[in-house]
Design a protein that fits this description.
The chain is an alpha/beta fold and 330 residues long. 35% of the residues lie in helices and 14% in strands. It has 11 helices and 11 strands. The strands form 2 sheets. Strands 1, 2, 3, 4, 5 and 6 form a 6-stranded mixed sheet that branches. A 5-stranded mixed sheet has the order 8-7-11-9-10, with helices on one face.
Length: 330
């Protein structure tokens, strides 16, 4: 029992006894006055008797009052608390993705391998004799040696060509000299910067002396003197035609063709487009699916891929047709 209840019992019981004494003193006769007077003393004794066992032996009431109860002791927090041991946090290494650099046209041109001179210059073989198929057979022989040969033709003066001629429409010394060496054609039968009209850079006109020239000595393997080191041309085998679709920009197709040839592209023809002035955008028509050459043209000429058509039915005498539009920048 708590000390507050014990103190209340000791004080309240005698008080109750005193009140009962006053009440009974009026009711009982005088001879019962002794009993009534003894009642408060009796209750006080009862309160003391009840309180004594509640106090432990050797402990006075002050100690009992001041001693903390067992319930309060149970609520005391522990003197120590669990502490998280130190640890090292290891974060994963963040790898920043490296952006793939976009090649500019200048970078593209620089990274291109040096093209073989044979692949840069086109040759047209014309039959100036009456022998059927001679130009076709000769074109195949030249192609096997690495020359870039276009479709063979019959010479307009067929039957009146006693001598075989090499007509260089520009100035292509490496290819011109290699061709003369391979076919045993004398230097005096070579015309440089000829005004001959043709799709090729060099025109080979087979004359009546052709068989005697080629059978005179075994055909030597063409050699190049002073030319660049021959490396595989990634654009070989795919022909390109360039047309000018603009108005007021004379020579645009020719200038662009020269740039393309310098990079190794095989350009076989240039000219004005039949819809010149109606071409706001530069167009590329791939008449087959020549992915490597087509993508190289897109990058070098800065053509919007939206204006590239694959497997096009557009008419052209080449594999890929390029039409320069108003948006083209040299």
């Amino acid at each position: 029992m708590p000390w507050v209840a014990l103190l209340s019992l000791v004080l309240i019981l005698p008080l109750i006894g005193a009140l009962l004494t006053l009440a009974l003193g009026r009711i009982l006769p005088k001879r019962g006055g002794l009993l009534v007077a003894a009642l408060p003393l009796f209750l006080a004794i009862v309160a003391i008797v009840v309180a004594v066992p509640l106090v432990s032996p050797g402990q006075d009431l002050a100690e009992t009052i001041s001693a903390p109860s067992t319930e309060v002791a149970l609520q005391i927090a522990p003197t120590s608390a669990w502490v998280q041991p130190p640890r090292t946090l290891v974060f994963p290494t963040v790898v920043t993705p490296t952006a793939t650099p976009t090649a500019t046209p200048d970078q593209f041109a620089t990274s291109s391998p040096t093209p073989h001179p044979f692949s840069l210059v086109t040759i047209v073989v014309r039959n100036g004799t009456g022998e059927t198929g001679l130009a076709t057979r000769t074109s195949k022989r030249l192609a096997q040696q690495g020359f870039r040969v276009l479709s063979p033709e019959d010479d307009p003066q067929q039957g009146t060509r006693p001598q075989t001629l090499i007509l260089d429409r520009g100035d292509h010394p490496e290819v011109r000299n290699a061709l003369a060496q391979f076919l045993n054609i004398a230097p005096e039968r070579i015309q440089i910067s000829s005004g001959e009209t043709s799709e090729g850079d060099i025109v080979l006109i087979i004359g009546d002396d052709f068989d005697s020239l080629t059978n005179a000595t075994p055909a030597p393997t063409p050699t190049l003197v002073g030319g660049p080191t021959a490396t595989p041309n990634p654009y070989a085998g795919v022909t390109v035609v360039v047309r000018n679709g603009t108005v007021g920009r004379a020579g645009l197709a020719s200038r662009t063709t020269d740039r393309l040839k310098a990079q190794g592209f095989i350009v076989v023809d240039t000219g004005d487009d039949d819809r010149a002035g109606e071409r706001p955008n530069t167009l590329i028509f791939d008449r087959g699916d020549h992915l490597a050459v087509r993508d190289a043209l897109v990058a070098f000429l800065r053509v919007d891929p939206a204006y590239v058509e694959v497997n096009s039915s557009e008419h052209a005498n080449a594999d890929i047709l390029v039409i320069l539009g108003d948006d083209f920048r040299e």
